[in-house]
Every structure is written in C-alpha cells, then in structure tokens.
Amino acid sequence: ELKVEQNPLFLSMQEGKNYTIYCNYSTTSDRLYWYRQDPGKSLESLFVLLSNGAVKQEGRLMASLDTKARLSTLHITAAVHDLSATYFCAVVLYKLSFGAGTTVTVRA
Amino acid sequence: KAGVTQTPRYLIKTRGQQVTLSCSPISGHRSVSWYQQTPGQGLQFLFEYFSETQRNKGNFPGRFSGRQFSNSRSEMNVSTLELGDSALYLCASSSKQGNYGYTFGSGTRLTVV
C-alpha cells in the first residue's frame, strides 16, 4: 500500500521568511500533485509534477519532484499571510493517496 | 469552462437513513473519483468511475456505492448512515489518467445526527 508522509504537519511561519514542506512516498510513482485547502473549503490544485526533476513555480510557491528519492518539496519564499492554509501532497498509483497535510499559519 | 459541480453542498441526515450525492465533472472528463475527508482519517479514496465502469474501489464497507451515467455524471450513495459517516465528500474529475491533474468539486458536507 502506498504511503505518503508529509512533514512538518504544522508550520508556523514568520512573514518574509522561507520555508519548505517535504513529501515522501513509499512506492515508485512519477505523478505527484500539490493541493491547497482553506478551512471549510475544497482542494485547490497548485502543481502537477509528472516527471523526475520536474520543478514548477507559481508566485511564492515552488514545487519539485525527485522520483528516485521518492521526495517532493514545496518551497515557500517570503511567506505572506495569504499563504495560511493546509497543503496536501498526493501521489498516484491507481488512486490519489494523500499525505496528512501541513497546516500553515503565517504570523506577522 | 465550468468546474466540477457537487450537489448538495450541505446535508443533515439521521442515523439509519440513506443519502445520495451527485457530481458533474468538467466537460470532457470521463473519470470521476470520490474521496471522504474527516479530521481523524484525512482524505481517503472511495471509488473511481470511468466510462460508466467502476475501475477501483477503496476500503469502505458495502454501504458505500456509486455509479456513473453516460454523460459522466456520478452519484454516490451511502445507506444505513452511521455517525462516523459525517464527513466532507469530495469528487474529482480528471482526463488522461490524471496527467493534467485532478480537479475537485466544492464538496458535500454530510452531517449524520
């Protein structure tokens, strides 16, 4: 069974600083997704990573995928309050298997 | 381009009742999958339908069932509701084996009392 582990589970960020969320998974897969969820809301797609070495950036967020290490990272640059949310990574075998989520709080 | 539409948004049901949730995927998407989200268990896969056929099923009891229609719209049904079925139910649509990602609907918040 595919296991997806995210860490940290909780991240208190100071505005303006940089942080990284890690996503490890247990079985070979070349497709990984990052989602954002605001409280009480659905999942918003952030990144689709389809190959080893894939790197995608959108605003202050950058995601990368290393399929050999079975590791993806979500890097946050110069955190701002709007980034407060829960971030999930998900890996595909025949279904999306999600990590537990990283709850991010940005403080002034 | 319309997104994934889930109805209803909120439901309150009594234990023992049954419920049907609906999901209309993005136009042209033939794959619909369902997920249950709870604070304790996180996001768990229920099942996936493609071209009216169930392709995969998660580890849920038989009270949870679904179907997909020829227009790709999908329904899931939960019979004999239990308190533990209270959750946010999300459906996702995708095309081409998810190579362009999975787009989620707004979800149905089910509360069983």
Features:
heterodimer; A: 108 residues; mainly beta; 5-stranded antiparallel β-sheet; 11 strands; B: 113 residues; 4-stranded antiparallel β-sheet; globular
Topology:
The complex is a heterodimer of chains A (108) and B (113).
Chain A: E1 4-7, E2 10-14, E3 19-25, E4 32-37, E5 43-49, E6 55-58, E7 61-66, E8 71-76, E9 85-92, E10 96-98, E11 102-107
Parallel strand pairs in A: 2-11
Antiparallel strand pairs in A: 1-3, 3-8, 4-5, 4-9, 6-7, 7-8, 9-10, 9-11
Chain B: E1 5-7, E2 10-13, E3 19-24, E4 31-38, E5 42-50, E6 53-57, E7 64-68, E8 74-78, E9 87-94, E10 103-104, E11 108-112
Parallel strand pairs in B: 2-11
Antiparallel strand pairs in B: 1-3, 3-8, 4-5, 4-9, 5-6, 7-8, 9-10, 9-11
Structural class of chain A: mainly beta
Instruction: Give a short account of the largest sheet of chain A.
Output: 6 strands, mixed
What class do helices, strands and sheet pairing of chain B give? Answer: mainly beta
The span between the termini of chain A is 41 Å
So what's the oligomer here? Answer: heterodimer
What's the helical proportion of residues of chain B? under 10%
Overall average pLDDT of chain B = 93
- The succession of helices and strands of chain B, N to C, reads EEEEEEEEEEE
Mean pLDDT of chain A: 94
Would you give an account of this structure?
The complex is a heterodimer of chains A (108) and B (113). Chain A is mostly beta strands and 108 residues long. Helices cover 0% and strands 57% of the residues of chain A. Chain A contains no helices and eleven strands. Chain A has strands spanning 4-7, 10-14, 19-25, 32-37, 43-49, 55-58, 61-66, 71-76, 85-92, 96-98, 102-107. In chain A, strands 2, 4, 5, 9, 10 and 11 form a six-stranded mixed β-sheet that branches. A five-stranded antiparallel β-sheet of chain A has the order 1-3-8-7-6, with no helix packed on it. Chain A is globular, with a radius of gyration of 13 Å. Chain A starts with a strand and ends with a strand. In chain A, 35% of the residues are buried. Chain B is 0% helix and 53% strand. In chain B, strands 2, 4, 5, 6, 9, 10 and 11 form a seven-stranded mixed β-sheet that branches. In chain B, a hairpin with a 2-residue loop joins strand 5 (42-50) and strand 6. The chains are: A mainly beta (108), B mainly beta (113).
